[in-house]
């Protein structure tokens, strides 16, 4: 459509226009209601139309909307940084604000490189990442992302490649099971370090629960503890990309708390401002900050809109709502309920191979027939898009994810409703999901099960 502001990412998609939202519901311009079962892209974690956030943003807009970060600081950004330091574990005390998850990942990489330069170890430049991961869409962040479909077209510009398998127990790359596997997927990090030479490795980056590229893969017990040990033993920084998992999404402020693991750098995005205004934060340890301070005393990064007062005010208000309404504890509790209901669906529908995740970041992986095997549907069935389209028609929004070690040979969706979803609303969501799966089964019976 000429004049449309949207360059549509999927050219054959017919996009409806959303006119407004309220709580967990979105309404299109024709008046149809949708349960926002994925909080958009796992973003709108306190739902739509939150009065406290709107008021805080209006108030800030009346004071100042923009100051340039290298000329001035501003009060909401300072207060937000203090709040994040109080929320984050141990000495993760220093925030550097940018506008998106991708920018935050790029900034974290730069900070890691700078840290080793200031320590006189400038050869430590390599960042190790995992297959089946997503760290962002810009060239640097995409370089680290282990998602072959997203990488393929831009391969010539990608700087590095993921080197380590994901902790994907449903399709263990070694065909082992936990705990007798001895966490071979974690030990792979040591192999990758040995191959590169630890004198060249600056950091390891991972999403605590694999979201966009893995349908909420949560690792087995002991995995991150072992990863952190390997990082310590080899003098490698551990970067936790909590863009999707942070700010309460998994039932903890930071998902790494589930594994009692404190990274050297933690990245928040998405849920930090719950979609009210773009902001992301790179939170670094005292050691990293002091080392850079003693050296060049300048983090060599930043964007025009870094630490934007308007976005900082929105994020601060969001964190206050999360705190006041105990939404992190609520997410943990209601996530257990939703997970139980998904497990019931798994019993009923043989097209569900696995349900997984933590808190309110849950995933469903689809297979041709779980009673026979974990074989995925043929790729040309486009099951992920079939399910998300059927659900949307019935009034439920799901996030299309993917499955399979390289993200090509499997289908998955994410369920990640706003953290303040009630039990009644969970029942409604599951009822629509049930209708969706019934409809999909009917269609698949006609098509053949693959
Ligand atoms: N890291 C993770 C773990 C993500 O899930 C995403 C977004 N899906 C990003 C980074 C990139 O964030 P953004 O889209 O805000 O650039």
Automatic annotation (TrEMBL):
Q: Which UniProt keywords apply?
A: Aminotransferase, Pyridoxal phosphate, Transferase
Q: Which residues form a coiled coil?
A: none
One short Pfam name that applies is Aminotran_3
Q: Which PROSITE patterns match?
A: AA_TRANSFER_CLASS_3 (PS00600)
Which Gene3D superfamilies did the record assign? Answer: Aspartate Aminotransferase, domain 1, Type I PLP-dependent aspartate aminotransferase-like (Major domain)
**Keyword Ribonucleoprotein applies:** no
Reading the lineage from the top rank, the first entry is: Bacteria
GO terms (molecular function) for this protein are: pyridoxal phosphate binding; transaminase activity
The family assignment reads: Belongs to the class-III pyridoxal-phosphate-dependent aminotransferase family.
**Which PANTHER family does the UniProt entry name for this protein?**
AMINOTRANSFERASE, AMINOTRANSFERASE CLASS-III
How is this protein named in the record?
A: Aspartate aminotransferase family protein
Q: Which organism is it from?
A: Metabacillus lacus
Phylogenetic lineage: Bacteria, Bacillati, Bacillota, Bacilli, Bacillales
């Amino acid at each position: 459509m000429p004049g449309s502001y949207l360059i549509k990412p999927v050219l054959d998609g017919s996009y409806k226009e959303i006119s407004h939202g309220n709580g967990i519901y979105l309404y299109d311009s024709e008046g149809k209601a949708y349960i926002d079962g994925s909080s958009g892209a796992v973003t709108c974690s306190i739902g739509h139309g939150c009065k406290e956030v709107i008021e805080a943003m209006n108030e800030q807009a009346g004071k100042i909307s923009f100051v340039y970060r290298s000329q001035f600081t501003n009060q909401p950004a300072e207060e937000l940084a203090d709040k994040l330091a109080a929320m984050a574990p141990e000495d993760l005390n220093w925030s550097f604000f940018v506008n998106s998850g991708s920018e935050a990942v790029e900034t974290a990489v730069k900070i890691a490189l700078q840290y080793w330069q200031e320590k006189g170890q400038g050869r430590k430049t390599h960042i190790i990442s995992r297959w089946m991961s997503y760290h962002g869409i810009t060239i640097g962040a995409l370089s680290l992302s282990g998602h072959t479909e997203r990488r393929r077209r831009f391969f010539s510009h990608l700087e590095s490649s993921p080197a380590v398998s994901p902790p994907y127990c449903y399709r263990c790359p070694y065909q082992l099971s936990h705990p007798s596997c001895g966490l071979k997927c974690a030990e792979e990090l040591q192999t990758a370090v040995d191959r590169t030479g630890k004198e060249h490795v600056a950091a390891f980056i991972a999403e605590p629960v694999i979201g966009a590229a893995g349908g909420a893969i949560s690792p087995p017990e002991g995995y991150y503890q072992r990863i952190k040990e390997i990082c310590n033993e080899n003098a490698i920084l551990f970067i936790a990309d909590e863009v999707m998992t942070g700010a309460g999404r998994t039932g903890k402020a930071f998902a790494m708390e589930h594994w009692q693991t404190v990274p050297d750098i933690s990245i928040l995005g998405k849920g930090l401002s719950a979609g009210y205004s773009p902001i992301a934060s790179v939170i670094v340890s005292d050691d990293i900050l002091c080392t850079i301070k003693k050296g060049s005393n300048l983090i060599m990064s930043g964007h025009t809109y870094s630490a934007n007062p308007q976005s900082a005010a929105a994020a601060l208000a969001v964190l206050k709502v999360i705190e006041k309404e105990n939404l992190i504890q609520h997410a943990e509790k209601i996530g257990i309920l939703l997970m139980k209901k998904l497990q019931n669906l798994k019993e009923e529908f043989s097209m569900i191979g696995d349900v997984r995740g933590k808190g309110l970041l849950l995933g469903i992986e689809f297979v041709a027939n779980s009673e026979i095997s974990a074989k995925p549907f043929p790729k040309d069935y486009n099951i992920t898009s079939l399910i998300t389209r059927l659900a949307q028609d019935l009034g439920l929004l799901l996030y299309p994810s993917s499955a399979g070690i390289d993200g090509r040979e499997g289908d998955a969706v994410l369920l990640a409703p706003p953290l303040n979803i009630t039990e009644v609303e969970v029942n409604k969501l599951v009822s629509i999901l049930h209708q969706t799966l019934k409809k999909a089964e009917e269609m698949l019976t006609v098509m053949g099960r693959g």
